[in-house]
Every structure is written in C-alpha cells, then in structure tokens.
Design brief:
The protein is of the alpha+beta class. It folds into 3 domains: 77 residues, no CATH class; 116 residues, no CATH class; 149 residues, no CATH class. The protein contains 9 helices and 11 strands. A 5-stranded antiparallel sheet has the order 3-4-5-6-7. Helix 2 packs across helix 4, helix 4 crosses helix 7 and helix 7 crosses helix 9. The N and C termini lie close together (9 Å).
Length: 359
C-alpha cells in the first residue's frame, strides 16, 4: 500500500476521507488510481487535484459515509466499482451495524487494491467473468437485546463462498467476538482482511483453476473432488494430522484441498501486501523478488523484526506462520497462477485499448 500526498504536502493514507492538516476532502480517484485531495465543483461534482479529472462521489460515500471512492462523471448517482459488488448489506436499523459495515468495506477496499496490484481479473456480472464476484454482509438472527449469541443452524450466517458469491458474517467486524473466536478456534490471527483474502481464494479457484489446471493443482493440494461434507465432518471429529505443520500453513488447511488452496492463497496475499507496503514506506529489502520463495524469505526477515517489536508491546506476533518447503512449493504454484492471469489480463486490456493506469 502506497502513501499518497495532499496538495498541501501532508501524507494521505488509504482510508482517509479528509486531510488531517488542511481539512480538504479526499478520496480514491479511479483515473489516477490513488488517494487524492478533491476540489468541490458543486452538485456533488469534484475535481481530482492530482489528474484534473471530474468525479462524482460513490453513493455510499455521499449518502452513507461508508466508502471513500469516487467514480468518473456520468449521468445520475451511482456506486463505485467496489460497492457495486455488494448484493446484501447489513441491516442498518440494528445499532452498531453501520460501524461494522464500514469496517467490512474498508477491508474489502484493501482486498480490491491488492487484486489490482497483482494484476488479477475481478468484476461483477457486467465484467463478463464467469463466475462474477459479489459480496453479502449479513448477521445472525437476533432475539431480545442480545447482540451476539449462540444461534440455531437456521439462524446462523456462515462466512463462506459459493459460485463467486462471498458471504461474511458481520460478527467478524466486532473486535470482541472475533477475538473470542480466535481463541476458541486456536488461531494465531483472525482478521477481517484475512477472511476476505481466504474467501476470494475460493473465488479464484473457480475462475482460474476449475476445469483448467486441476491435475497440476491436485498434485500439490490433493483431490478437489473429494466429498467436502465428509471431509469437514472428519476434520471436526478427528482434528488435523499430528504433523500438519510440516505440510500445511494452518490446521484448517488440512480439511480439504479447497481449504488448503484458500489458506495458501490468503498467505500469498498477506506476503505480497506486506512487502508492497514495506517497499512503499522505504523499507529496503533488496532487489524485486520474482519467485514465491524469495518473497517468503523477505517476509520472514521482516517478520523477525516486527515480531520482536510486537512482543515488546505485548502484542501478537506479526508473522506467526511456520512456512516449510512444501508450503513454499504451494506458494510457487499460486505465484504462477497469478502471474499467468495477470499476463492474460494485461494482454486483453492492450487489445481492447484500455489505457487505465495500474495502481
């Protein structure tokens, strides 16, 4: 993630809506692909001070205070490319849900930024991708004054993915609930962005591997056609194999080939995003890494420093994972899938005359 700059010279960060120094409104400009200060033109029209484009606020920015992305000037109000992916948003009549929705959208915007940085294709129904990408943010059925409670199966919203549609239970946007689940499930980390990275991994399995590269996938991750329900029942009854850390990035990855892929994909996005941000902030890690193994080594080197700093503050380790050689081999496969998809996307844009700037 880059750090941007206001016209006054103050640094701007990805989630800013105003400049903390001069008070100017700021937002994400899709034309120059960055956070920029904005000049009001009236009637909700704005000028990007970086590239001089005329922009409109995303409706969820102007009306809901949830988003900070702008859209190119067009007739009528509309949603930005991120918000347009939503099929269901939380029930805003429930106290606290607006703040939870804002946290979910902030994590989703970071996910989309990372996908663009990697050159990956994504888009809704109008994109022509099969399957298209979409999101629903929903909560469990509530009773009485309770906010979070144990619910029956018919009342639960399960975070997951099916056919390009990602569902996130909004309880994950509640810090206390997420911390409870992290402890109950024995997870080193449990974060909103982590959920998005994992679930979008399932989406990219459907988009980039299913029916295209399943034999190579199976050689590393196992049979994707194994009965998922039976695998899940076995996992929760028996737990992971005792030597799982030698071959998997998490205990959950041992359940099924799909989950091993999604957990490995999420780790790759973790690594790529951390290294990208470190580089943007001037942390020198050497020449560009062109393999997953080189990325892992830099991530681990940075992790040694950050883990010790976190421990001095009594915080969780920044890099808790043990990344053994079998996991690196899986990461190399993910790296290859992403590289091929990015190359194909770039070629398609060139042929279509798409001159949009890369982020």
């Amino acid at each position: 993630m880059r750090v941007f700059n206001c016209t006054c010279g103050n640094p701007l960060f990805f989630d800013n809506v105003t400049c903390t120094a001069c008070g100017r409104w700021v937002g994400w400009c899709p034309c120059c692909a960055g956070i920029s200060s904005l000049e009001a033109l009236g009637e909700d029209r704005w000028r990007c001070t970086t590239c001089d484009s005329t922009l409109l606020s995303c409706a969820n920015y102007a009306d809901e205070g949830i988003c900070n992305r702008m859209i190119p000037e067009a007739p009528g109000p509309g949603l930005c490319d991120c918000c347009a992916l939503n099929e269901t948003i939380p029930d805003l009549s429930v106290e606290g849900n607006r703040a939870r929705w804002a946290r979910l959208e902030a994590a989703k915007r970071r996910l989309i930024y990372a996908l663009d940085r990697l050159g990956l294709p994504w888009g809704g129904a109008e994109s022509g991708l099969e399957p298209p990408l979409s999101f629903s943010f929903m909560g469990d059925t509530l009773k009485g004054d309770e906010v979070w409670r144990s619910a029956g199966p018919e009342e639960r919203v399960y975070t997951g993915h099916a056919g390009g549609h990602i569902i996130i239970n909004i309880a994950e946007a509640d810090d206390a609930e997420r911390a409870r689940l992290r402890v109950d499930l024995g997870e080193a980390h449990r974060t909103l962005i982590g959920h998005f990275r994992h679930e979008v991994g399932h989406y990219y399995w459907d988009l980039l591997i299913k029916g295209q590269d399943e034999a190579a996938f199976a050689a590393l991750f196992g049979d994707p056609n194994e009965d998922y329900a039976a695998a899940m029942e076995r996992h929760y009854a028996e737990g992971p194999p005792p030597d799982w850390q030698q071959r998997y990035i998490s205990a959950y990855a041992t359940m099924h080939a799909w989950e091993d892929w999604a957990e490995t994909w999420a780790l790759y996005l973790d690594i790529a995003s951390v290294l990208d941000t470190a580089g943007a902030l001037g942390v020198t890690l050497g020449p560009p890494a062109d393999t997953a193994e080189a990325m892992v080594r830099r991530y681990q080197s940075l992790g040694l420093i950050l883990n010790e700093l976190n421990r001095e503050m009594g915080l969780l380790d920044f890099v808790p994972e043990v990344i053994n050689q079998p996991v690196i081999e899986k990461l190399e496969y993910v790296h290859g899938v992403i590289s091929r998809a990015a190359h194909a996307r770039a070629q398609a844009r060139t042929q279509a005359g798409d001159s949009r700037l890369a982020v």
